[in-house]
């Protein structure tokens, strides 16, 4: 991040930072899972040849992640399908296919009629703590009880778009006297 500091970028995007406790990667499991997905891609480079290479790779990855990658926590749908309100129609299509399979070969389904995975009502990255019951309030908050980074209003405040170019334009500023041949490792 040479163009602006991470803090400046996050403030501009309306993102509240959260930090894991040292040596506890389970504090941010969804973020960690996304990083693993990124780094285990077959085309993930050992090193980036420069900023344009890193930028191009990140654009392609984000497009794939939002438009093509089927997420288990989203009932095997893409984020774009859910974000743009197409999930209900996809669920109906899946159910039609399963009904046809059941009608053709009911013996293959020994327990019950098949159903597609259900879409969750909500999906969070580090869901904020609910208001605690008065009887269950701990005397001292644990280290992990700090307010997590997810903001309940962030989706409403964000642009209603998964357009990679639109969002990356926010962080892309001309490099100031940077050597384009520098190698970047993420």
Please outline the major beta sheet: none
Secondary-structure-based class equals mainly alpha
Q: Would you count the extended β strands for me?
A: 0
What fraction of residues sit in β-strands? under 5%
- End-to-end distance: 11 Å
> Helix amount, in percent?
25-40%
Radius of gyration: 21 Å
How many separate helices? Answer: 7
Structure description:
It is built from 7 helices and no strands. It is mainly α. Among the domains are: 28-69, no CATH class; 70-122, no CATH class.
Helices, strands, pairings?
Blueprint: H1 6-13, H2 29-39, H3 51-67, H4 79-83, H5 87-104, H6 154-157, H7 164-171
How would you summarize what this structure contains?
The chain is built from seven helices and no strands.
Primary descriptors:
7 helices; 0% strand; single chain; 186 residues; extended; disordered C terminus; mainly alpha
């Amino acid at each position: 991040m040479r163009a602006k500091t991470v803090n400046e970028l996050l403030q501009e995007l309306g993102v509240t930072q959260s930090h894991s406790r040292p040596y506890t990667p389970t504090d941010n499991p969804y973020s960690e899972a996304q990083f693993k997905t990124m780094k285990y891609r077959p085309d993930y480079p050992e090193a980036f040849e420069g900023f344009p290479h890193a930028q191009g790779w990140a654009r392609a990855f984000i497009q794939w992640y939002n438009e093509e990658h089927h997420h288990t926590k989203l009932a095997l749908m893409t984020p774009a399908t859910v974000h743009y309100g197409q999930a209900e129609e996809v669920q109906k299509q899946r159910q039609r296919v399963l009904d046809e399979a059941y009608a053709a070969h009911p013996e293959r389904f020994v327990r019950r009629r098949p159903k597609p995975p259900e879409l969750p009502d909500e999906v969070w990255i580090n869901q904020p703590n609910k208001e605690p019951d008065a009887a269950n309030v701990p005397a001292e908050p644990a280290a992990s009880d700090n307010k997590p980074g997810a903001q309940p209003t962030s989706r409403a405040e964000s642009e209603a778009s998964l357009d990679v170019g639109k969002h990356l334009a926010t962080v892309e500023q001309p490099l100031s006297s940077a050597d384009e041949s520098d190698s970047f490792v993420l």
